[in-house]
Amino acid sequence: MSQTRSLRLGVNIDHVATVRNARGGAYPDPLRAAKLAEEAGADGITAHLREDRRHISDADIDGLMAGLTVPLNFEMAATPEMQAIALRHKPHAVCIVPEKREERTTEGGLEVAREENRLAHFIAPLREAGCRVSIFIAADAKQIEAAHRIGAEVIELHTGAYCDAHAEGHFEARDRELASLREMSAYAHSLGLEVHAGHGLTYDTVKPIAAFPEVRELNIGHFLIGEAIFRGLVPAIAEMRRLMDEARG
């Protein structure tokens, strides 16, 4: 797929591994899903190697690095173990995310402002190794400024609160979240950061985010894997790609 698109789609294949791990076997294979995603219009693949290995495994990362022809976005917590894995593989991109064992999914953005010194030292070797470092944060000026100061090249704005408000019918809250995401996308761009967005996006919520001119990439996973049960992975991703392109106009 072309890397020159104004808005890229990264497909997160974590929950293909979740289904596989439910039976403890080798099927379905996340690498096969990644290759189908590329066929369907994905510009990159995202995979989150969690501390507890609840879905993606170390072997999955090995396979993705060896088998992908599109970039891998390696999501990880800011721990020495994950840093060592990233430095061994040197993926195209590393996205630093908050992680708690008890959470079902990533519940919020990384607290960069409070851990600025530690995170600056943490990402420096990753940047030196040639990885593009992204920080997953809330749409908050303080966090964006801190991400900029520590040397991140990219921020990924957490769209979960916007998507949750839409799903629950809280439309005033949804519109407030959308306005904040719009404003902070523009602010981050003005600082020279590349802006990505993701978490919880669906066919119903993607277009307003995709329309932000500063956003360069959306990362979408759980919804697409769920939708694939009903329409197949390639058609599910192709429809998301169509909506993104339509929103970009």
Q: Please, what is the oligomeric state?
A: single chain
Task: Tally the beta strands.
Answer: 8
User: Roughly what percent helix?
Assistant: 40-55%
- Name given to the CATH architecture: Alpha-Beta Barrel
The structure class reads alpha/beta
Q: How confident overall, as mean pLDDT?
A: 94
Topology order in helix (H) and strand (E) letters: EHHEHEHEHEHEHHEHEHH
Largest sheet: 8 strands, parallel, barrel
The CATH superfamily name is Aldolase class I
CATH class: Alpha Beta
Radius of gyration, in angstroms, nearest whole number: 17 Å
Low-confidence stretches: none
CATH topology annotation: TIM Barrel
Order of strands across the main sheet: 1-2-3-4-5-6-7-8
Beta-strand content bin: 15-25%
Task: Using the alpha-carbon principal axes, give the shape.
Answer: globular
Discrete helix count: 11
Q: Compute the number of structural domains.
A: 1
The N- and C-terminal alpha carbons lie at a distance of 19 Å
Describe what this molecule looks like in 3D.
InterPro entries: Aldolase_TIM, PyrdxlP_synth_PdxJ, Pyridoxine-5'_phos_synth. Pathway: Cofactor biosynthesis; pyridoxine 5'-phosphate biosynthesis; pyridoxine 5'-phosphate from D-erythrose 4-phosphate: step 5/5. This protein has 249 residues and is of the alpha/beta class. It has a single domain, classed as TIM Barrel, CATH 3.20.20.70. Helix content is 49%, strand content 16%. It has an 8-stranded parallel β-barrel, surrounded by 8 helices. α2 (30-40) runs parallel beside α3 and α4 packs parallel to α5 (116-128). It starts with 7 loop residues before the first strand and ends with a helix. The mean pLDDT is 94.
